[in-house]
């Protein structure tokens, strides 16, 4: 683990102020870094949200790229020293210390080769405990204000590090014995119950569910918010914790619960609640995935479609954040894969632009998927699915690599579900060609017996029935409204199949109108240009000539 | 215990059952085969909802592959693929080996309800024999089901049962384009200019 200490003398000597580091040797910290640290602390202490955003989103990544691309940031004690010294001996703000430590470890996870060691992971975990204790452990709410992006990033990173740790713990094959015994003994570090507990406490403390319900019914939020929930910090932490819980349930394989925790949120209008693009995209991904696993293909397609359209809109605003660019790109790619998968199972019309994007990038894949190529389906699923986890520690006595097991389990189940639907695309393609068709004829075309065909047709109908309700609770009720929204529908009358297809006429009118108006604009621009040129020329010759021209 | 209650009283609480499975996932030492079987059976009885799939995601694949769970899973799969006749046969043969199946009150009724639901959405008219076969009932019992779902024997043709008049609902639709007045309004100034230009040239 290289630290800044070892890099003494690597930079030109115009950075002043040597500082005593934790292990007693001198370290030279560059001036820009010191200024940043002091500004950041001041911003947090003064509750200046705008400055915090500047420090966190703009300066920190720049400084990381410039000085710390391969090395750790200075240790927390060093930083506390520096800031305290600049404040004339006073203690820096406690929240600043916690946040800086969080950013320190996040940097290790993201940029340092070899990733975090076990000690790093444990220390990071305890830092998160400090943060949540700081926020939750008081009787009265803390008065700090933090930007939403920062709050979301904390929750997001918290769950990510938990995921990472569980995977790390499950890879037992190449570990040394002491490592294994340390893991065996550390029951409390990154324990699933604590993680769940934290998220649930945040949700409870901020009364976020009650607030959301009031919001949906148009009532008065402040009446139900409670002392903590009134403050933006707690409210948004509660909101982001709901999303965190959705993600957590999804990666544990409980898709029903994943959707249930978001029951008070209208997933199709996420931008109403908060304007954090990374949060909205991540939410849509997990929600879309859960819908797909629950066989609610229509909802899944709609959610993924909206998410991809949203991503197109906010792409430009995300360009300024290189640290999240990769992550967002990967997630959108995964969502494209999921959309391709859902569309091959349940063809539906989607947004024009999204449709064009998919066609461009994944044409070959779509062909294979529509032919029910099981390998292609398995690969697509594996790429697009989240990293599933098992909530229990692995069997430490048998050093194997267990981390892929949960994923394999879910993938197997999914593939067996797909196998049950294997004949459906064939049936669909044949039905598209006819308005009425006898069972005998279709059986002949498909090389099966009429008996078997009856069964397959019923299976088609059964699988394509989606639950169409946004309310997760209602969906579980016995009489949830279901509908088949496939564009192609049919019914069986004795021995005849009657097919109904939806034909959408091409929209010429809109295209023509748009282009007529465009042409008009161009004409006007040309006329203006004309006037301008001749006006100038006439101005040189004489003003009367110019006015006669126009 | 709650599961027992559901089984004997013929009620169903999906969330609670999933929670129990989750409990087993978190604490594998608490796992009980009997309870899991009953949960799976209740999930099957709740088709067409995807509860059965959801349950399977939460159970370890090794357990699903061995008896007695594997027979229950097979039953579920047969229903999911609408292989009803196979299902009744398998049920008869596994009923003896898995006593739990017999203890779930209303299991066969719920299954028949599901089958009728599938028939209801697929058929306008179905052969009476076929219907009896997939429901695994005798011709004389058919009347009860016909009454329940409002189906009728076709008047002149007792070999068919009339399910639902889909002719009205499932028809080919042509979504043609409608150009609304507001859109045309946008063109008004353009058209006006064009018209006056034509006038000028004509003069």
TrEMBL record, chain A:
Query: Which compartments is it annotated to reside in?
Result: Cytoplasm
- This protein's GO CC annotations: eukaryotic 43S preinitiation complex; eukaryotic 48S preinitiation complex; eukaryotic translation initiation factor 3 complex
Q: Which family does it belong to?
A: Belongs to the eIF-3 subunit L family.
Designated name of the protein: Eukaryotic translation initiation factor 3 subunit L
| Organism listed in the record | Macrostomum lignano
Q: Which UniProt keywords apply?
A: Cytoplasm, Initiation factor, Protein biosynthesis
Question: Which residues, by range, are in coiled-coil regions?
Answer: none
Which Pfam family, an example, fits this chain?
A: Paf67
Superkingdom, according to UniProt? Eukaryota
Q: What does this protein do?
A: Component of the eukaryotic translation initiation factor 3 (eIF-3) complex, which is involved in protein synthesis of a specialized repertoire of mRNAs and, together with other initiation factors, stimulates binding of mRNA and methionyl-tRNAi to the 40S ribosome. The eIF-3 complex specifically targets and initiates translation of a subset of mRNAs involved in cell proliferation.
From TrEMBL, chain B:
User: Could you identify this protein by its name?
Assistant: CSN8/PSMD8/EIF3K domain-containing protein
UniProt keywords, alphabetically: Cytoplasm, Initiation factor, Protein biosynthesis
Would you tell me the Gene Ontology cellular component terms?
eukaryotic translation initiation factor 3 complex
Task: Give GO MF terms, alphabetically.
Answer: ribosome binding; translation initiation factor activity
Q: Name one GO biological process term.
A: regulation of translational initiation
Q: Where is the CSN8/PSMD8/EIF3K domain?
A: 32-171
What domain of life? Eukaryota
Q: What is the lineage of its organism?
A: Eukaryota, Metazoa, Spiralia, Lophotrochozoa, Platyhelminthes
Q: Which InterPro entries match?
A: ARM-type_fold, CSN8_PSD8_EIF3K, eIF3k, Transl_init_fac_sub12_N_euk, WH-like_DNA-bd_sf, WH_DNA-bd_sf
């Amino acid at each position: 683990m290289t630290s800044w200490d070892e890099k003494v003398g690597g930079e030109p000597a115009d950075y002043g102020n040597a500082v005593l580091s934790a292990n007693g040797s001198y370290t030279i910290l560059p001036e820009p870094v010191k200024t940043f640290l002091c500004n950041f602390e001041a911003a947090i202490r003064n509750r200046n949200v705008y400055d915090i955003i500047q420090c966190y989103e703009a300066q920190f990544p720049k400084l990381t790229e410039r000085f710390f691309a391969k090395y750790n940031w200075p240790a927390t004690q060093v930083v506390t020293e520096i800031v305290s010294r600049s404040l004339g001996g006073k203690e820096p703000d406690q929240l600043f210390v916690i946040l800086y430590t969080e950013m320190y470890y996040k940097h290790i996870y993201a940029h340092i080769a070899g990733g975090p060691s076990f000690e790093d992971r444990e220390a990071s975990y305890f830092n998160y405990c400090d943060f949540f204790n700081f926020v939750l452990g008081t009787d009265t709410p803390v008065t700090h204000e933090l930007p939403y992006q920062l709050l979301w990033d904390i929750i997001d990173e918290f769950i990510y590090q938990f995921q990472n740790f569980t995977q790390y713990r499950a890879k037992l094959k190449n570990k040394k014995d002491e490592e294994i015994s340390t893991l065996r003994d550390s029951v409390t570090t990154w324990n699933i119950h604590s993680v769940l507990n934290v998220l649930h406490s945040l949700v409870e403390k901020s009364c976020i569910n009650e607030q959301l319900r009031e919001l949906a019914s148009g009532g008065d939020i402040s009446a139900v918010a409670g002392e903590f929930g009134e403050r933006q910090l707690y409210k948004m932490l509660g909101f982001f914790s709901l999303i965190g819980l959705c993600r957590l349930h999804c990666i544990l394989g409980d898709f029903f619960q994943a959707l249930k925790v978001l029951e008070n949120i209208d997933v199709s209008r996420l931008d109403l609640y908060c304007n954090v693009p990374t949060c909205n995209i991540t939410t849509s991904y997990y929600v879309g995935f859960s819908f797909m696993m629950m066989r609610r293909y229509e909802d899944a397609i709609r959610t993924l479609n909206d998410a991809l359209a949203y991503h197109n809109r906010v792409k430009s605003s995300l360009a300024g954040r290189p640290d999240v660019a990769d992550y967002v790109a990967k997630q959108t790619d995964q969502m494209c894969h999921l959309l391709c998968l859902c569309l091959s199972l349940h063809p539906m019309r989607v947004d024009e632009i999204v449709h064009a994007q998919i066609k461009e990038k994944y044409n070959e894949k779509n062909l294979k998927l529509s032919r029910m190529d099981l390998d292609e389906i398995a690969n697509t699923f594996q790429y697009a699915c989240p990293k599933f986890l098992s909530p229990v520690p692995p069997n430490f006595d048998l050093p194997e690599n267990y981390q892929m097991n949960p994923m394999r389990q879910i993938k197997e189940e999914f593939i067996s579900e797909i196998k049950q639907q294997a004949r459906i695309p064939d049936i669909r393609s044949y039905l598209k060609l006819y308005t009425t068709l006898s069972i005998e004829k279709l059986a002949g075309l498909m090389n099966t017996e009429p008996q078997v065909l009856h069964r397959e047709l019923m299976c088609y109908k059964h699988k394509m029935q989606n639950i169409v309700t946004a309310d997760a609770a209602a969906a579980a009720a016995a009489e949830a409204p279901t509908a088949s929204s496939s564009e192609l529908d049919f019914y069986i009358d004795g021995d005849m199949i009657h097919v109904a297809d939806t034909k959408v006429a091409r929209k010429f009118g809109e295209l023509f109108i748009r282009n007529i108006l465009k042409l008009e604009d161009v004409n006007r621009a040309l006329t203006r240009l004309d006037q301008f040129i001749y006006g100038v020329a006439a101005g040189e010759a004489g003003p009367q000539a110019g006015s006669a021209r126009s | 215990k709650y599961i027992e209650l559901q089984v004997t009283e013929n009620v169903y609480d999906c969330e609670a059952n999933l929670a129990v499975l989750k409990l087993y996932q978190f604490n594998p030492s608490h796992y009980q085969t009997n309870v899991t079987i009953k949960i799976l059976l209740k999930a099957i009885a709740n088709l067409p909802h995807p509860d059965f799939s959801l349950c399977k995601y939460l159970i370890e694949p090794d357990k699903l592959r061995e008896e007695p769970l594997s027979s229950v899973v097979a039953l579920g799969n047969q229903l999911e693929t609408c292989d009803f006749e196979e299902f009744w046969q398998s049920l008869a043969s596994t009923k003896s080996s898995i006593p739990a199946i017999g203890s779930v009150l209303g299991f066969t009724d719920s299954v028949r309800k599901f089958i009728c639901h599938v028939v209801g959405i697929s058929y306008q008219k179905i052969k009476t024999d076929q219907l009896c076969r997939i429901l695994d009932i005798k011709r004389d019992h058919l009347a009860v089901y016909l009454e329940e779902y409002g189906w009728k024997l076709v008047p002149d043709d007792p070999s068919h049962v009339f399910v639902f008049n889909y002719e009205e609902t499932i028809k080919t639709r042509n979504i043609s384009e409608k150009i609304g007045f507001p859109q045309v309004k946008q063109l008004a100034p353009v058209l006006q200019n064009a018209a006056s230009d034509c006038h000028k040239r004509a003069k």
